[in-house]
Each structure stands twice: as structure tokens, then as C-alpha cells.
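Sorry, any thoughts here?
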Amino acid sequence: MPQRTTAPFGSWKSPISSDLIVAGTTGLSEIVFDGSDMYWLEMRPREGGRSVIVRHTPDGQTEDVTPGAFNVRTRVHEYGGAPFTVHQGVVYFTNFEDQLVYRQTIGNTPVPLTEDSQLRFANFVPDRGRNSLYAIREDHSQSTQQAASALVRLGLDGTDHGLVLAEGNDFYASPTPSPDGQWLAWLTWNHPNMPWDGTELWLAPVLANGRLGASQLIAGGLEESIFQPSWSPNGTLYFVSDRTGWWNIYRWHNGSTEAVHPRPAEFGVPQWQLGMCTYAFDPQGDIWCLINERNHWQLAHLQPENGELRPINLPYSILYGLKIYGERLAMLAGSPAAPTVIAHYETSSQRLTVLAHASKDHFDPGYLSLPETIEFPTTGSTTAHGFYYAPINKEFKGEEGARPPLLVLSHGGPTSAAQASYNLGIQYWTSRGFAVLDVNYRGSTGYGSAYRRALNGQWGIVDVEDCIAGAQYLVARGDVDGAKLAIRGGSAGGYTTLVALTFYRLFAAGASHFGVADLEALAKDTHKFESRYLDRLVGPYPERADLYRARSPIHHTDKLSCPLILFQGLEDPVVPPNQAEMMVAAARQKGIPVAYVPFAGEQHGFRRAENIKRSLEAELYFYSRILNFPLAEPIEPVLIENLPLAHET
């Protein structure tokens, strides 16, 4: 083994550059089968974050479907999901710029089916016998914050711009026709619930004129979350419910509901986007499903008649977006050691192939840090979870007796989860000499509904306590330098970051990416989907405005004493830019080292290659100045206001 160079942690030269991350990475999502042809969506940072439909044919040919002037992305619920479908070789999709629905035959120019950009559509499902699509529609003509949601039928010939089938509730999702087309199931819910809090599954007959007959409630309620209704080939309605504390698969038939395979594991996910799916039926009626146990995923074959479940051994720990056609399964798959792929699995031959890669760059294992699954004690005599990544670089080692700086990651959502995935964004740090802790604080998914709901009424408290407890655990274990702890997060994770920097005295630096600084402003300004999200996480607003002020960093900047850097998209409808700008102004006035990097044209999350690159490098530059380590290579400086001369190089 070649001798490694001794250098300060953080200063190691790494082949995992920001240029490589944005140049070599494609976002893969939204698998759709149309007969034997398979389609998926690719988000391409090098094309300005444009999303493109790609077609893969049985003879192995892959081609772009979407012309260069189009961007396939819907803004229903702002987070979108299910922006296209394909039916008999014709593609139907929502275009991001105008939010119109387009019809496209392969190789031809898309033609608009709708005319009004105030009407947004998503979650398209063909109604094969009626020349139409079921879809979810949001009407923004009156108010964006109070956009009217409805379940509609959309004519494929452009003559029908949305026949309303169900309306009156705050949200609709998952239109699911029976195999014979005679029944339609769907999900709905109302404020203040989010779909993981409580939803309802409804069922109605489809009449001869295409409208719906009398509907009936099948499952769900204020405290029961229903996910992904699906029909078996013989016409039995299945769904996922968390009624026992875990998202398990159930079936409903002749007025009776029964669990298919009760298990303390998750067969569902939080429905941040439309069209999410974790199971599917083969032609024989067997279920192929994805199971999440402590945020490690596995494919399994489930026989619904006897409940027998057989795990399938695949080289992946993250699986999502499962779809099936005949004996062909397709899913998004990833592992800590390899980039996300579209994996194709033949159920009869058990043959596994890869059809697309998010990145074709494979690094020498000497530069890759594999995650250690950890559990650690936290407040309330409970246990929290996370993935720990030690610094690694085959060319460098730290100075004798030194410990690496720790970067604590607080994931967004907050109803979401950190995954043990191949994440070049994490390897960017570990290969330079940082240790990284990706925390699954209370409120994270993958550990049952009791753990998920432990954040209710406690946002800004237990999530922060768990991030702190994780950092302290690693300090006590001797892994990291207790004087060089930093925390970073985006969106809700940005809020956790800002709270940690304002109300606690553990971290030496922090980075907020489009994070929440003012809970009251968020409750008043954010979009409809999340406009009542905080009712459960914090308390009803405005009745408990006192809690909102008490937990908002912007109202307690007198307690802020830690350098921070903030990144913000200037067209963000979820966390408006004024949140970051208020925090910057407060830090500036108090004399705390602060940097602000805004991005024109970006929304909630950065999609353009140049902005992803800039945010990574600016954050590294910021830490190098605050934590005092040299940079391996020149980086464009970022202005750090109030930086003492002792920190300048």
C-alpha cells in the first residue's frame, strides 16, 4: 500500500469534485410501462435541470422522447410527481413552464390538450375503455394558497378539459380504476392532515356516461394513513395502511378488510409526491413488494392467499418506484457503494439487468466511505438512528492525535428519512477529511408510525436534540473533534440547523439550504399542500402563535453566536426567500460571521448544474475559513461578512 500523505482534516485533495458531481449525475424517476416498452424520467442538471422522458424498447434501444423545448414536471402540490403517462404508444405529460398537458406521438412535436395554465394536472391514469385519462387537477385561478383540488377525467382528444368526478375535499390522489374499468378507487384528505397523518380510501362505480355513482368509504380516517390503492388481476382492491403502527398491505373484498402479511416493517412511504408505489401484481396475482426495515429496503415476493413472503436477494439497500409488466419488474435501486440505477428483474429467470445509471462514475473504494448504521441514546430515554460515514481517502491521513471535523446532516421533510445510499454529496466531504453523520431523528420514516409521530408538537425540539445527541455520541466514542462540529440541512433540515445554531451551544458552524427561519411566516406564506403541516408539528395557528414565535430562530437572534452560511432559491414557493434574508440581516447586525448565496431562477432545491456546483464549493470555502484548515485547491471565494481577521488567510 502506498504511503499516505499527512494533512489536516478537511484539506485532503479529492477526485470527487463539484464539477464531477453535476456533470456525471442524472436524476432518475417515474418508471412507466406501456406494453413491453418502458419509459422513465431523467432530470439533467447540465440541461438547466430539465426533465426528459426516455424510452427503452425490448430490443435494448434507448432514446429521448421529450423535445428540447419541453420540461416534464408538474407543480400539483408543488412537489409534483407522476407528471406523465403513456398509453398505446402516445405520451401525455405536463410541461413545467406553462403547466399545460401535452399529447405526443413518438418522434413528433407535442400538441397541447389543455389551454389554461391556472389548471395544473398530474397523476395520469388511462381509462382504456373511454378514451380518457383520470387525473388530479389543481385550479389556481382564484388563489394559489387555496387552490381547488379535484379528481377529474381528461379527454384524450382535447375536447374535454377536465370533467370533475370528485371535489370538495382539500386534496385528492391515486385514481385507480379496476381491471374491468367498472370501478374507481382514490385517496383524499383534508387540512390539517398531511397524507401520512390520515387519509381516506373511497370507491365508486363508473357509470356509462363516465361519471361516478354513489361512493363509499373503504378505509382510513383522521388517524389512519392509506397509501397506494391497487387492484389485483381478479379485481380485489388492495391498499397499504398504518392502522397497526406500521404501513402494511391489506385487501378489501365484499365489505371485509384483512391484512395480507402483518409485519413490523414499512410497505409504504410518506406521499410527498403523487404516484409513489411500493408494490405491484404479476399476471398470476402474486404481489412483488418493497419492504423497509430500519431504512434498509428489500424486494420480496408475497403470495396473498397464504401470506407467505419470500425475500429476493438483490445487491441494493434502497428500492423505490416499483412497476411491473408481465414477468418484468423495474425499480429505482441503489446501494452505499454504487450510484442509483433503473434495475430490471425478470421474475421467472431471476435475471437482473441495469438499464440506466444516475452516474457512470465509479470510484476506487479507497475514496468511498461506507455508512455505519448507528443507534444512540437521546432525550426522553429514547433511541435515535443515523448513518455514520468516517473520513477516507487512500492518499491522505489526518495529523497525529487529531480528530476530524463532523458534519451533521439534518434531512428535509421533516417527514422523510436519510438513506444509506451512494451519495457523492456525502463523499465530497468524507474524501476531504470530514466525518459525516446523517441523522434519522424522531419524526423520520422507516421505523414505524410511533417514531414518525414522535415529532408531532415537538418540531424544533426533539429533532434538534437527536442531532445534538448523535454528535455527542461520536465525540464520546472518540471518532470526531468536539470543537469542530458543524450542522447542515435543507428545507425542514435547514430549520433544524438554524434552531441548533440559535438555541444551543454545540456547533461551531452551520449551513442552511432554503431553511425555515420564521415559522409564522411559513404558516402564512407557504403553498396549500403544506399550509397546515405545522398544525401537528408545532400547534394550531394562530391559536398557538406563541409556540411559533418561541421556536422561530428569527425571533431569538440575540442567542445566535455561531457562524452560518445560507443558500436560497429566489423563486422558492415553499420557503420564500425573505426567510433567509431576515436571518442574514439579523446575523449581520449582531456581528456574527455570515454568508448568503442566493440563486436566481431556482425554486425549492437546486436543479441547475452551475448552482449545485457553487453551493458545494461555497460551503467548503466557508468551513475552511471558520474551522481553519487550508483548501487543497483554489475555490471561488464567498463573501463572509463580520469575519475576524484571525480567520482570513
